[in-house]
Amino acid sequence: MRKTPFFKLVMRTWIISLILGLMWSCSFFGDRKKEQYIPIEFDLQDEVGAFNGLGANVPISFYSRRMKVLQTFNDLGIKYIRVKRVDENWNDILALRASTTRLRIKWIYSLDAIPPQFLNKYGKLIDVKGFAGWWAEEVDELLYQEVPADYIELLDSPDLLRGDSLALTSDLFNELIHSTRTELDLREFQNVGIVGPGLSSPDIMGDRETWYMDLDQAGFDMLPFWSVQNWENRDTSRQVVSALADLLDYLEEIESSKSILISAYASSETNFNQIQYPDPNQYDLLGNLKTFETYYYSASFSLPYALRVYSNTLDLLKHKQVVPFLYQLYDAPADVKYKKQSWGLLDLSGAEKPVFSMLSQLMQRVPQRSTIVKTLQPSPAGLNALCFKNQEKVLVTVLNEDLHSQSIQVSLGGAEGKLEYKNGLLCFSPGIFPPELGKMDVVEMEDVELKLRSDGDNHAYIFTLTLKPQSIFVGEFQYK
């Protein structure tokens, strides 16, 4: 059959329409494919502030060379330690001090309870001058024992009831700062600073605001750092930052530029993925009860707990002039055996719990004299990210708490030169043990290959990555 010109025109039109349709379809599905990546964006010029390292609470009553303390501090980037004044073994303290001195770590001495001779029958401080003198004598004794104090915190959580009343009130705290500073100066301890107020929460609603309001100007000036604990609220946001943000806003209003020492944080959460883990404040005994070192177990041995602490660390560092203090560096026998507590990042044998394994992989790679950059937009649920940078390097970490893989596209805008990928790794667990087995989750590491490309239109560098379920990524980039 002979094809007419009209037939040829119709066929040509149909073929062109088909081709255009296929091109549109490919473009549509291509765009859809791109949209499957969750965007995480950084502007490297938008800095939060300098990274000042981490702090850690250390059980000073126990020192063990199994802990490899020097390596532990170094791996975590510890710049401050906070210790409690108890009945110590001075040889243990001296050994610990030798390790920290080599790393130029600052010591903060704190106190759980005011000695009873300075309290009334209701547990309230009545002899301010006597307690101030006691602290000055303690500082003198520490110097004599060659474990000098860099800072002291007059009382841990003075805003909590002890018995029928507060041991300290905000006005007594102001008076105590003045009196303690005077007693320290009389003994020529001008180099020993006082940090405070050491509150149990940064939430300034209610009476806690008075701890800042009732300081006179001289008392305000005597504190080189604020100190406060920061824990999530299980019943509300489950985030560590909401109350802290309010406190930071308040401190800005009263024109305070002091750094904040988050004197204790970890995670108070014990229910992960609808699985209830034993509380580290009251762990479970499993197996042979006589061999407690082998069979004690709590949420702190699990990967989900590690991920939450890791995420909380990132959230705290997103605020300028904040130094987070890990709640407890390692488990101590007295805590495990008698208090049934297991908050440490290392267990009794010195083995790494998952939180240490993951956090140390990040902190070992943080560039020297680095600044912190947070994401331009809040991360979607289950994800969290942060960036560290200096003039030579950029370090990016992204966390996935979700039970499913997450595909992400990370954009690094504002680079100061040509950026190239150096190396990176994924930290994850091949399987999460159920709590009834009492086994520590194993953390594995896998090298990551990335293709970093330049996005000239947006003046950024971009890479894509699929995060395994419940994993973290740590990637190093450098300028050519």
Fold blueprint:
Elements: H1 5-35, E1 38-43, E2 49-50, E3 54-57, H2 69-76, E4 78-84, H3 90-102, E5 106-110, H4 128-144, E6 151-153, E7 161-162, E8 165-166, H5 170-186, E9 193-199, H6 210-213, H7 217-222, E10 225-229, H8 242-253, E11 259-265, E12 271-272, E13 275-276, E14 284-285, H9 292-295, E15 296-297, H10 303-317, E16 322-326, H11 333-339, H12 354-363, E17 371-373, E18 383-389, E19 393-400, E20 406-413, E21 419-428, E22 444-447, E23 453-455, E24 460-467, E25 471-479
Could you characterize the architecture of this molecule?
This protein is α/β, with parallel strands linked by helices and 480 residues long. 30% of the residues lie in helices and 26% in strands. The chain has helices at residues 5-35, 69-76, 90-102, 128-144, 170-186, 210-213, 217-222, 242-253, 292-295, 303-317, 333-339, 354-363, and strands spanning 38-43, 49-50, 54-57, 78-84, 106-110, 151-153, 161-162, 165-166, 193-199, 225-229, 259-265, 271-272, 275-276, 284-285, 296-297, 322-326, 371-373, 383-389, 393-400, 406-413, 419-428, 444-447, 453-455, 460-467, 471-479. An eight-stranded parallel barrel has the order 3-4-5-6-9-10-11-16. A hairpin with a 4-residue loop joins strand 23 and strand 24 (460-467). The longest helix is centred in the N-terminal third of the chain and has 31 residues, at 5-35.
